[in-house]
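help with this record:
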Amino acid sequence: MSLMDAHISIETEPDGERNLLPDGWSWEDKRSSVYTGLSGEETLAAYRRRIRRLRVLAIVGVLVFLAGALAFIFWLDSLFWYLLSLAGCIASAAWFWSRASLAFLGLADLVYLDCDPTRYRFVLERVGGRHGRGEGESLRTLELAYCDYLEGDAAGALARLQKVQFKKASNALWFRAMQVEAYARMELGDSDGLADTFARMHLFVDGMKPASRQRAVAADALAAMELQAVPESAWGEFELGRAQDHLARSERHIECAGWCIRLAAYGVAHGMARQARSIMEDGRIEPLVPVHERRRSDLLARIETAAHVFDA
């Protein structure tokens, strides 16, 4: 937007005091992660304590079932209960790995809810075990690429994504990788590369199981990203309504903040600077990841510049 455009927007305010946010939506009841308020070292220590507790419980389970198996085969002479106890040992180990995987994935709340990619990176770079080998390492690399993007290094994110490899072409994490790639290309203004990424994402979604929840979620995420790729100055009522709907359905703080900033950008571009400023200066929009903080600062600077031009 040029200075003259900004001047006209501030002066005319064609939509008066129209609310840019969805009716009834507020920042109330937004969640924080279980690691909120901790330093990087404290977060890593809390995560490791959680894994140790899970491991102890799993070991106790394995020992109990193993003792039962020995008792059933040597003293009670019951093959059925022996085999069932062995199955319990296997189930205990499987329970540990599933819970440990959920704990690892839960670290993403450091960016989703706490909007702290620096702390997320700190923990990711120090987590070992199964997440430091094979596809676990690719998942960690993917999340580090997401941190690169959030911290303003879109080119670094694209370079890191080249190292990501998953065995199955149908692995849903490929869609996640393409999401990060698309965001990075948006940030770099790479329209040709973004079009190619979107085309691959559409092919991936089309290849998912019809009518499945996973496909519906992926299709909704893709539609949201395609909307985000359109400059807010080119949005009409339809795009505005879609953005408001996405905000109303968002649960993660990072998503809510991102949509709020885009709605504010729409306001700046369409003569609703006062409403846009109100959104961006609401303290509840914080914390912000660096890429969102920069966009908010740029929008506020545009409003200030336009106001000075108008005053002059």
